[in-house]
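Below is a typical protein record.
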Amino acid sequence: MISYKGKQNILLFSFIILIAFVLRIWGVNFGLPSLFHFDERVIAYNALYTLSHKGMIHFGYFYGNLIPSLVGILYGIYYVVLKISGIIKTPFGFLVLYMQDPTTIYLIGRIFFVVIGVLCVVALYLLSRKLYNNTIAVASGILFSTCFLAIHQSKIMKGDTFGTLFLLLSIYFCSNQGLKIKKYLFAGIFMGIAIAARFSLLIGIVSPIFIILTEKTVTLKDRLKNCIILIGISMLIFFICTPSLIFDSRNFIIENYGVIFTIEQWPNVNTGTLPVWLFYLVEYFRKGIGLPLEIMGLIGILYSLYRKEDISFIIFLALYFGIVLNQPLSCERYLIPVIPFFILFASKFIYEIVSKLKISFLARNIIIGITLIGLMFPNLLNTIKYNYLITRQDTRNIGLKFVESNILPGSKIVCENSDEGFEQTGHLGLQLHKSKKQLEEQLVNEQKNGKYNKYLEAMIKGQREPTYALKNVLVLEKEDYRRKECYKNVDEYVEQGIEYLITSSWAKNQYVGNDLPKNFIDSLNDRYELIKEFKPYPLSRWDYYSWRVDYEALSKVSIFDKNVTGGPIIGIYKRKEL
């Protein structure tokens, strides 16, 4: 029979999980059927490639094989359901259906990662209860379930949240004193999965290793043996989950080497004079989890360091900040693996300080509860505002409807942030569709190697109307962000017979970071006229799905304001002599 206290714990735990799920699932269908996150497309396409292996686009190995394979399994289940129901008959029909409307495909993947995000909360709760007590576990669960940065990153298909879950599970099993050799096997399995999901989590293996080496009840010989077991199992599972490292090692190494050593050439967030790791603390962390929680976490880390406790977690944090969070390419999502540990240190410090007060048990719980409310309030406020924002209309979809209603099909258009792929999925601009003629010409060119044939054939058959003659550019004055030289004016576009130019403020901020050159603006105004402009409200400087959230703009969002609109500033220009 469950005791009264046990029932209370179950109710509290259920409440934490419910809050975590609701905040993460809210707004999970953002943007669809348009695709507003580039990395999601990479995962989805690689998942489809995993299913078919032949005839599909393969974006490479930088994100590994594990996440695309797992998502591919989900897509495979969906394929079987569609085939049984008679909606499709062949894998090619499945691909055509995706081209016609990718909504369900993306929702399947996103909901899977929402569940993973909720399981992260569960894992931290269980780890906190195992290491400390139920009060600290509840505090950690509440803070993690409402953490803004963890919430908005749980809505997208990326490996950061998934890897964090298995890092926590690895540490959980390694901390279990009752499983003996089994705990190292499970810890190794979960660590291998974490590394396969996010290569940078290789650093995370230092925590279970340190825990093993400092076990006082085990001889040094056995500790070393257990470390070898943990490392060996981890690497075995990593290789199993990353088969391309074995079967296509040359391309795997070339691609990852190329990305690592050309990363400084990528568009990036300007950290000013601050070291990147410090920029994470004073910008991303401060705003992504709230200043009160960050300060409490830092104090908790210093307190534990003073008491020589939880050193394994502190070593992991130091290495992660010093290596992973000190690279030129900085994204908010890279902080996901360290958030649970900051929350754990904060929760533990709050409990230990309050427990020393000579007051009643009820008074202690009231103080802890009030403190938790103060810590989670900034996160909860940002989460509600953000979720409301992403469920509102987006300027890119509004602009797309305008173009499709007012510009003749087949018109020659240049649209900022239209990428070089076959499908127009530039996440910072309008997602227009190439003409059938363009796709057929590409198909002729690709038939020599056969790599993308099926993909192009599916695009042609499942093409969404209307279509246009599109030219791909990242920003108007540069076709590629790696190019040092810019167009001096728009004459290049006039000579090519471009009838419309469509701009995106986010493309400008991400790839160039400054306004158009004056001579280019003058020529633009001379040869083209602005026929329509769509502005978001409030105005956001950056793409809040990819690199970083504009927290100043987010603070201006009101859930009672129906005028709230997401997206960049979209400008539509028409050539004057038309």
Notes: The chain has 25 helices and five strands.
